[in-house]
Amino acid sequence: MPPTPSLQLDRFVPYRLSVLANLVSSAISGAYAERYSLSIPEWRVIAALGEQPGMSAADVAARTAMDKVAVSRAVAALLRARRIVRTQSRRDRRRSVLRLSRTGAALYARVVPQVLEYEAALLGVLGRDERRALDRLLEKLTRRAGELTPCIIARLAPNAR
Questions:
Q1: 54-66 burial by CB neighbour count: b if 16+ within 10 A, else e?
Q2: What is the pLDDT of residues 112-146, one digit of tens each?
Q3: From CA 147, how far away is CA 139, in angstroms rounded?
Q4: C-alpha to C-alpha distance for 33 and 103, rounded to whole angstroms
Q5: What is the pLDDT of residue 75?
Q6: N or C: which end of the chain has fewer CB within 10 A?
Q7: How far apart are CA 86 and CA 149, in angstroms?
């Protein structure tokens, strides 16, 4: 039996990306969590709807790559807090769509400058060419991860369906 390959977490790209994402999310959430009583999933819903109003909860889940259950909980909390509103779609009466309420839009307008300031500070360590390269690499890796996901699921859990 061949020896099991060794995994060095500090060199394993999925782990490193996860650590970076967690550090960034935690830092940014500080801009809105305590001050505005928003969780990370709630902010992501607000950010998605601020950019593209009129999405369904499923659309938000797809757009943010969040679990549907997390989106559902965030939507429910935001509806209770009257930060978003839900209406029927004009095109398809069976479909409901979400939009920021006046309160949610005001919150979005207050938080966006703070998170953009954090992003600028984070990326400030990179030069212009490095930022462009990072952007290209993130797009390329995101696309590839989407392509590989069905293959990986099939290989790791062949009997799962």
A1: ebbbebbbebbeb
A2: 999 999 999 999 999 999 999 999 999 999 999 88
A3: 12
A4: 16
A5: 97
A6: N
A7: 32
pLDDT of 160 over the 60 cut:
no
What residues contact 118, with CB distance under 8 A and at least 6 apart? 27, 28, 31
Residues 6+ apart with CB under 8 A from 149: none
Tell me the C-alpha distance between 85 and 99, whole Å. Answer: 5
Q: Where are the domains of the chain?
A: 9-125, 126-161
By CB neighbour count within 10 A (0-12 exposed, 13-18 middle, 19+ buried), where does 128 fall?
exposed
Using pLDDT thresholds of 50, 70 and 90, give the confidence band for residue 149.
Answer: confident
pLDDT at position 86 over 80: yes
Q: Of the CATH numbers 3.90.1170.30, 3.40.50.1110, 3.40.1410.10, 1.10.10.10, which one belongs to the domain with range 9-125?
A: 1.10.10.10
